[in-house]
C-alpha cells in the first residue's frame, strides 16, 4: 500500500527574487551577474599594493620612517573594506508588485485614463508628488508594475528598480544606490589617496636609490629573489598603473564630491533634472554644502526591504510503500447483524474511530417514575396526554 507523505522544503526568498542578480553565502552577498570587471579591479589593487609592500616599503621604512608602510596598510585595508561593502550589499532594490497589487494598479490606471481609442497612444502613466513646494513626477515601471519612488530608476543591467539610483558601476560589480552610495564614495576617495601615496613614494624610492648608486645602476639593479627581472621594471610598472589610475579615480572622486555637495545623483546630472530649460530647483538640496554632505554621507542608512533570507516553505509529496501484510486485524470492523437482517451498531463510535455528534446518539424516553426528582410532575400539573393514550380511551 502506498502512502503519500508531505515534506516541507525550506526555500529562501532570494532564490525566487526576479532580476539579474547573483547571490552567495545563502543570500548574504548580492551582486550583478557581470562581475568580470570587478575581478579586474581586485587584481589591479591587490597586484599594485603587493609589489609596493614587497619591494619599496622595506627600503623606505629603513631609510625614511617605519610609518610609511603602516599608513599604506591602513589605506589599503580601508579601500578594500569599502569596495567589498559596496559590491556585496543591496543597493536599495525595490520589490516588484505582487499579482494582486499589479492588477489593482492597472485597474486604477484604466479607470483614470479611460478607454483609449484604437490607434492612439495611451497617456503616460505619471503621478505628481510635491516635495518642498516642488512638483516631482513619479513614473510607472512597466517591468516592476509599480510607481517608482522619487529619485528611483530602473537599472537595465540588473533589471531592478533601485531607490535613489546613482548609476551602475561595473568596476564594483553592482548598482550604486541609496544603501551603498556612501561606501562607494569612501571607496573612490580612499583609492585616490592610496594611488597618490604609492605613486609618490615610488618616485621617492627611485630618487633615493639614484642618489646613492646612480640612476643607471638603479636601472640595472635586480632583487635577489627575481634575478631575471629588474627591480626598477617593477617600479616603473607600478608608476604606470598609478599614473593612469590617478587621472580617472581622482577625477571621479572630484565629480562625486561635487554631486554630494549639491545632494544630487549621477542619473539626475546626466538627465539634467534640475538644470533643464525650466530651471527647476533641486528640492532635495538644503542650500548648504555641510548639510548636504551630512545627509548623504552621515544620514541614517535604511534597511533592506528585500528580506533576502526570509523563508518560503513549499510542500513536496513523496510516496512510500508499506511492506507489512494486511491481516484480519487491519480490516475495518463489520457491523453486527440484527434479527431483522439489518446492521446494528455495537458502539457509538464511527468508522474512523471518532465519537459521533451528540445529535446522532439516540436518547431514550423516560417515564415519570424514572425521571429525577426535580424533573417529576408535581400534583398541580396536568400531564399532556399522548396520542396513544387518547386512542386507548376511545
UniProtKB/TrEMBL annotation:
Alphabetized PROSITE patterns for the sequence: DHHC
Catalytic activity: L-cysteinyl-[protein] + hexadecanoyl-CoA = S-hexadecanoyl-L-cysteinyl-[protein] + CoA
Keyword Endoplasmic reticulum: yes
EC number(s) stated in the UniProt entry for this protein: 2.3.1.225
Cellular compartments annotated: Endoplasmic reticulum membrane; Golgi apparatus membrane
Membrane topology: Multi-pass membrane protein
Superkingdom assignment: Eukaryota
One of the Pfam families matching this protein, by short name: DHHC
Enzyme class, broadest EC rank: transferase
Region Disordered, annotated ranges: 315-394
Signal sequence annotation: none
InterPro entries xref list: Palmitoyltrfase_DHHC, PFA4/ZDH16/20/ERF2-like
Domain Palmitoyltransferase DHHC, first and last residues per copy: 137-271
GO cellular-component term (any): endoplasmic reticulum membrane
Keywords assigned: Acyltransferase, Endoplasmic reticulum, Golgi apparatus, Lipoprotein, Membrane, Palmitate, Transferase, Transmembrane, Transmembrane helix
Transmembrane spans: 37-55, 67-84, 183-208, 228-250
Any Gene Ontology biological process: protein targeting to membrane
Any one Gene Ontology molecular-function term assigned to this protein's record: protein-cysteine S-palmitoyltransferase activity
PANTHER family linked: PALMITOYLTRANSFERASE ZDHHC9 (PTHR22883:SF71), ZINC FINGER DHHC DOMAIN CONTAINING PROTEIN (PTHR22883)
Domain comment (free text): The DHHC domain is required for palmitoyltransferase activity.
Family the UniProt entry places it in: Belongs to the DHHC palmitoyltransferase family. ERF2/ZDHHC9 subfamily.
Name of this chain's protein: Palmitoyltransferase
Amino acid at each position: 500500500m502506498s502512502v503519500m507523505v508531505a515534506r516541507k522544503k525550506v526555500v529562501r526568498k532570494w532564490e525566487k527574487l526576479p532580476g539579474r542578480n547573483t547571490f552567495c553565502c545563502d543570500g548574504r552577498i548580492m551582486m550583478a551577474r557581470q562581475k568580470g570587471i570587478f575581478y579586474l579591479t581586485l587584481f589591479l589593487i591587490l597586484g599594485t599594493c603587493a609589489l609596493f609592500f614587497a619591494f619599496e616599503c622595506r627600503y623606505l621604512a629603513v631609510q625614511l620612517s617605519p610609518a610609511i608602510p603602516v599608513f599604506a596598510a591602513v589605506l589599503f585595508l580601508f579601500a578594500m573594506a569599502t569596495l567589498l561593502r559596496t559590491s556585496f550589499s543591496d543597493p536599495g532594490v525595490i520589490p516588484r508588485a505582487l499579482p494582486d497589487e499589479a492588477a489593482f494598479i492597472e485597474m486604477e490606471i484604466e479607470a483614470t485614463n479611460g478607454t483609449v481609442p484604437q490607434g492612439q497612444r495611451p497617456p503616460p502613466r505619471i503621478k505628481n508628488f510635491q516635495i518642498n513646494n516642488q512638483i516631482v513626477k513619479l513614473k510607472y515601471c512597466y517591468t516592476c508594475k509599480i510607481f517608482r519612488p522619487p529619485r528611483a530608476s530602473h537599472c537595465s543591467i540588473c533589471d531592478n528598480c533601485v531607490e535613489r539610483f546613482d548609476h551602475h558601476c561595473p568596476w564594483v560589480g553592482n548598482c550604486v544606490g541609496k544603501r551603498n552610495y556612501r561606501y562607494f564614495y569612501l571607496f573612490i576617495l580612499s583609492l585616490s589617496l592610496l594611488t597618490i601615496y604609492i605613486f609618490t613614494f615610488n618616485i621617492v624610492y627611485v630618487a633615493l636609490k639614484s642618489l646613492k648608486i646612480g640612476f643607471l645602476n638603479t636601472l640595472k639593479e635586480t632583487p635577489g629573489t627575481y634575478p631575471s627581472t629588474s627591480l626598477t621594471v617593477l617600479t616603473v610598472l607600478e608608476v604606470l598603473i598609478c599614473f593612469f589610475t590617478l587621472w580617472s579615480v581622482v577625477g571621479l572622486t572630484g565629480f562625486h564630491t561635487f554631486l554630494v555637495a549639491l545632494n544630487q545623483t549621477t542619473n539626475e546630472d546626466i538627465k539634467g533634472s534640475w538644470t533643464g530649460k525650466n530651471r527647476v530647483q533641486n528640492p532635495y538640496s538644503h542650500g548648504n554644502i555641510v548639510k548636504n554632505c551630512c545627509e548623504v554621507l552621515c544620514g541614517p542608512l535604511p534597511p533592506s526591504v528585500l528580506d533576502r533570507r526570509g523563508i518560503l516553505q513549499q510542500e513536496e509529496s513523496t510516496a512510500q510503500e508499506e511492506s507489512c501484510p494486511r491481516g484480519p486485524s487491519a480490516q475495518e470492523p463489520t457491523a453486527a447483524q440484527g434479527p431483522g437482517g439489518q446492521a446494528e451498531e455495537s458502539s457509538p463510535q464511527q468508522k474512523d474511530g471518532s465519537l459521533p455528534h451528540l445529535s446522532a446518539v439516540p436518547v431514550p424516553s423516560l417515564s415519570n417514575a424514572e425521571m429525577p426528582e426535580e424533573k417529576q410532575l408535581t400534583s398541580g400539573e396536568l400531564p399532556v396526554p399522548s396520542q396513544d393514550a387518547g386512542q386507548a380511551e376511545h
